[in-house]
Amino acid sequence: MNIVLTRLDRIGDLILSTPAIASVRRSWPDAHVTLACTPHNAVVVERNPDIDDVAIAEPGDAARLLGPRFRGRTDLAIALAPRSADFALVGATRAPQRIGYTYVRRYAARLTARRYLTRLAVSEADPDLADRDESYVVRHEVDQVLALVGIAGGAAVVRDLVVPIADEDRASVAGVPAGGIAFQLAPRWLRDGSTLDSTLELIRSLRAFGLPVVAAYGSESIDLAARVRAAGVADAVVGDLAFGAWAAVYEKSALVVTVDTGATHVASATRRPTVVLFEHRYFNLNSQEWSPYGVPAACLRKPARGDSGSLARMREEIVAAVGTLLARTCVHD
What 3-state class would DSSP assign to 16? Predict the structure, then answer.
C-alpha cells in the first residue's frame, strides 16, 4: 500500500501534524508513507521515524512537479493542510481515497476541494464565529488533522508530537545556559499591542526568577536580537540555529515564553511549559486551535491598545504566568 500525505504550509503546522503521521504509520504499518512538504518545513521531518520518503516542492509547483510521480501509484492520499495547494496535489495523485479538510465558512474552498477530494471534512474553526461568542468551542489543530486518519479508516491514534532531537543538536548548543527561561524573539513583539521598550522591560523582569534568560531568534528577528543584546537584558542571545538545535535549546530550558505559534509548537514537541501571547483579535479561535499542546501552559491576550498602562498590565500577566508554571513544574519534579 502506498500512502501520500501533504503539508505545504508552515513549520508549526507540520509539527502539529506529526501525531496524524504517526497514526497513519501505526494504522498501516506495512505501507510505504511519503510526505510531500516544502523546502521550508521539511526540517521538521528530517529524522521522523514514521515516514519512508520525503518529496519536496514549493506549494505553487507541487501538483505539477510531484503529481506525475504519484499518479496511478497511490492508494490513499491525505491533505493535512486545509489549503488549495495541498488539495491540488492530493487530486493529482488520483488515489482511490483522497481526503482533506477545510473551515466551515470557506464556502469557495469547499466547492473547489470537491474537484480534488473524494472525502472532505469540515472544521468548525472560524475566527469571526469564535470572536462573537466566547463559549464557541474549536478543536485543537492536532485533533482536526487526526480526524482525517479516522476518515481514511485508520484505527490507531497517536497524540504525541514527534520532533526527534539528535545528540549533535544538543552538542551544538552545549554552551547555552540550561534550566532557564527561553524567550523567543519575533516581529510580533514589536507591534499590535507590544513594543520594543516593553519587550526589553519584560525580559529584564523575567530575570527576577533567578534563572538564566535565553533569547532565541531566527532570521526575521536579527535586528531585534541586536537590540536585546545591546540592552544586556538576557543572559544569552542565540540565533542562526538549525531546526534541531533550536529545539535542543528549548529542551534544555525550564520554560518557554513566546508570541509566535511556530515556537509554541516546538516548545510543545520538547515537552516544555509555555507562556504564549496571542494577538488581541481572534484570540478565542487562536488560543484554542493553536494553543500549546500537551504541556502546562498559559495563553494570554495582547492588549487592544499599546498605551503604557496596558503594556504594564500585559507584562505583569506574563510574569505571573511564568511564576505559576515554574512553581507547578517544581511541584511535579
Answer: helix
- Note every long-range contact of 249-253, with CB atoms under 8 Å and residues 24 or more positions apart, other chains counting: 249/173, 249/176, 249/182, 249/214, 249/216, 250/182, 250/216, 251/165, 251/170, 252/170, 252/173, 252/176, 252/178, 252/179, 253/178, 253/179, 253/180, 253/181, 253/182, 253/214
Inter-residue contact 170 to 44 (CB < 8 Å): no
Intrachain domains 2-151 and 179-332 with the same fold: yes
Output the pLDDT for position 303: 95
> Rounded CA gap, 260 and 15, in Å?
14
Query: What is the edge-to-edge ordering of all strands in the sheet holding 213-217?
Result: 236-239, 213-217, 181-184, 255-258, 274-278, 297-301
CATH number of 179-332: 3.40.50.2000
The answer to whether 100 touches 82, Cβ cutoff 8 Å, is yes
User: Position of cell 520525503?
Assistant: 54
**H or E element that contains 159:** none
pLDDT < 50 regions, the chain: 331-333
Domain ranges of the chain: 2-151, 179-332
Among 207, 219, 211, 216, residue whose Cα is nearest residue 182: 216
CATH superfamily label, 2-151: Glycogen Phosphorylase B; (3.40.50.2000)
With contact defined as beta carbons under 8 Å apart, do 269 and 295 qualify? no
CA–CA dist 85, 34 (Å, integer): 17
Give pLDDT tens digits for 257-304: 999 999 999 999 999 999 999 999 999 999 999 999 999 999 999 999
Q: pTM score, two decimals?
A: 0.95
For residue 237, the cross-strand partners are 215
C-alpha to C-alpha distance for 172 and 163, rounded to whole angstroms: 17
CA distance 205 to 208: 6
Q: How far apart are CA 329 and CA 333, in angstroms?
A: 6
**147 in Cβ contact with 78 (< 8 Å):** no
